[in-house]
Amino acid sequence: MSRRENLMDDPLLKTSEVAKLTFSRNTIDSKLKKGLFPQPDYVDPESKYRYWRLSTINNFFSKKAS
């Protein structure tokens, strides 16, 4: 099997694609309630959509890895 055929059968995933597979909205909600995920930096008062700064996420995972 050629390298190209192998990539088609088992494609490379970007980080954002991996995140979509590993952290669903329900997973994040559950982890937030249990205190296992950082609180959002901002919550839109109208839509209730939550936002995190990249630095918040990076700090959380770097602490978790140590």
CATH level 1 class label: Mainly Alpha
* CATH architecture verdict: Orthogonal Bundle
Span between termini = 40 Å
- For the record, the count of structural domains works out to 1
SS field, number of helical segments: 4
Radius of gyration: 16 Å
- Described by the principal axes of the CA atoms, the overall outline is globular
Mean pLDDT: 80
Percentage of residues assigned to helices: 55-70%
- Number of DSSP strand runs: 2
* Strand portion: 5-15%
Largest sheet: 2 strands, antiparallel
The succession of helices and strands, N to C, reads HHHEEH
| CATH topology type | Multidrug-efflux Transporter Regulator, Chain: A, Domain 2
Low-pLDDT parts are none
Structural class, from helix and strand content?
Answer: mainly alpha
Model description:
This protein is mainly alpha-helical. The protein has one domain: Orthogonal Bundle (Multidrug-efflux Transporter Regulator, Chain: A, Domain 2). It is built from 4 helices and 2 strands; from the N terminus they run H-H-H-E-E-H. It has helices at 3-9, 15-22, 25-34, 54-65, and strands at 42-43, 50-51. It has a two-stranded antiparallel sheet. Strand 1 and strand 2 (50-51) form a beta hairpin. The N and C termini lie far apart (40 Å).
Short note summarizing the structure:
By secondary structure, the chain is mainly α.
